[in-house]
Design a protein that fits this description.
It is built from six helices and no strands. By secondary structure, it is mainly α.
Length: about 150
Amino acid sequence: MWSYEKKLQYPVNIKNTNPKLAQAIMSQLGGPDGELAASMRYLNQRYAAPYTQVKGLLTDIGTEELAHMEMISAIIYQLTRNLTPEQIKKSGFDAYYVDHTTGIYPASAAGVPFTAAYFQSKGDIITDLVEDMAADSAITLEQHFWV
C-alpha cells in the first residue's frame, strides 16, 4: 500500500511557455524509456523476484518512477499552459493540441502513444534486471542530451 504526500517531490515552477520543449520532454513521460514504462517495468517485475529484499527494492524503485511521472507531467503542463494560437502553430504543437489541448497524454516525442510493448517482464530476475539497466542507460543518455 502506498501513502501519497500531496506535493511534488521536487517543486516545478516554470514561468515561460515552450511547447517545442514540451514535445521533446513528452518522451520522458510516455516514450519507450520514459517514466511510465519505468514504473510499470519495476512494479510488474517485482512479483517474480526470488527474494523479499529484491521485491522490496523493485517496489521502491517503481514508486520513485511514479513520482518522476508526476514531476514530468507538471513540467509538460507548465510549458504548455496559456498558449496562444500563434505559439501552437509556430511550434508544431498543433497536432498534439488538436487531440489533447493541453491535457497530459503519455506519448513519445514523435507522438506515438504509450504502449506496454515498451517494457518487458520475463519472470527471470537476471533477464529483468538487464532490461532495467538497458532502459535506465537510455534515460541517462537522453538526460545528457538536454543538459
